[in-house]
């Protein structure tokens, strides 16, 4: 007979904490309830899994049993529609196969060039301001968002967002904040009711749709092959061997933009904060970059092993995708426990990355963990990019982008914090710094 899963009915006070200080609630629950528990939240039973073996069961060993029919993905779908990030099963598999070659190693070098161009453009803007003063104050979070959006636009779709990236990135961010608001307010009025939030959301979505449908039309009319992800979707076929519907292409483009810009930007924002507070690590990266002769290519950055570990460790402490949900299709066994069919399952990269049984001094920033100690932590205790067949398709892209931003920026500038402490964590769709990340930037 299965052992009863530790359960807890969430009180009103806890429900409020869950809404206002989600991460504190999650960490407290993990400490009090153990590695598997059932939380009864209103009408819903939510199973929280916080052990690498259980996570491996959901992501890999029995992954087909865990679909995306959850509030989290339904709310994402308000923006992306039915796409790679929100689906499971045959439709997902077909689209994953279609998109996968777009991230092949051979494609990444071309993308590295687009990334380098966007980074140089950002530095050009900084230099312009620095020509008049010795240092400047920047919100690095806004800078990283703007850069991230320009990079997904140009590297994946040959789209130039540089003119409106500052406004557009903030608008899309607002749209994603609305997605979080809908997840937290299950009784919110339907999106067609003209509340100020709904009106703003629908307006931004229309604006983004217009850009994307225009992009599809322009490319089709031009007949030019750019050998990018858009071409793959335009040439792609559905299950009936028919060209993909316009809406499916739109959904995949917006999926890549949404999944690919705020995630990297959030990770990079935390990178700047962490490095500015760990001069020893920054010095080691500078030393590695100092002797580096690689160019802006995948191979060029792959030799920067310490730099790569420093990025991995930021993604451990600040996993941009801090929460992942699934719904079980059939009953499933987790050691001595059984989770019923139709259950909501929650995996929190932030909590497993801080689990004291798998991470020594989890709060400490130690890039070396990802070098010498690699064999010492179980694979599914480090999941910033998820795992199994749904593993983030953009992982190599994200690592490449983060490395290039870091290397190119550190070789030219010094960044110092303007506040004594790191900004508080703000768990939205991604794990963001609350009120931005204000830093002083000077040339070196
Ligand atoms: C630091 C940056 C990134 C992080 C932390 C991240 C994280 C993740 C995670 C955790 C998942 C798994 C979600 C799940 O299991 O349901 C995922 C999936 C996905 N990511 Fe990323 N991601 C990043 C960057 C990117 C980029 C740059 C792109 C595209 C250019 C991208 C596109 C996607 C897509 C399309 C999926 C769905 C994959 C599938 O289900 O087949 N991501 N990402």
Describe this structure in words.
The structure is a single chain. By secondary structure, the protein is α+β, with helices and mostly antiparallel strands. The protein has a domain at 7-266 and 324-348: Cytochrome P450 (Cytochrome p450, Orthogonal Bundle). Helix content is 52%, strand content 12%. The chain contains 16 helices and 13 strands. The strands form 4 sheets. Strands 1-2-3-9-6-4 form a 6-stranded mixed β-sheet. Strand 11 (425-427) and strand 12 (431-433) form a beta hairpin. Helix 7 (140-157) packs antiparallel against helix 11 (246-276), helix 8 (165-184) crosses helix 9 and helix 11 crosses helix 14. The protein starts with 6 loop residues before the first strand and ends with a strand. The model has no long low-confidence stretch (mean pLDDT 92). Protoporphyrin IX containing FE (HEM) binds at residues 84-85, 96, 152, 156, 255-256, 259-260, 263-264, 267, 320-321, 324, 384-386, 390, 392-394, 397-398. Protoporphyrin IX containing FE (HEM) binds next to helix 7, helix 11 and helix 16.
Record the SSE blueprint.
Layout: E1 7-9, H1 12-20, H2 22-33, E2 36-41, E3 44-49, H3 52-61, E4 66-67, H4 71-80, H5 89-99, H6 105-130, E5 135-139, H7 140-157, H8 165-184, H9 196-222, H10 229-235, H11 246-276, H12 279-290, H13 298-302, H14 305-317, E6 324-328, E7 332-334, E8 337-339, E9 344-347, H15 349-352, H16 395-410, E10 413-417, E11 425-427, E12 431-433, E13 438-443
Parallel strand pairs: 1-2, 3-9
Antiparallel strand pairs: 2-3, 4-6, 5-13, 6-9, 7-8, 10-13, 11-12
Helix pairs in contact: 1-2, 4-8, 6-7, 6-16, 7-8, 7-11, 8-9, 9-11, 11-14, 11-16
Bound molecules: protoporphyrin IX containing FE.
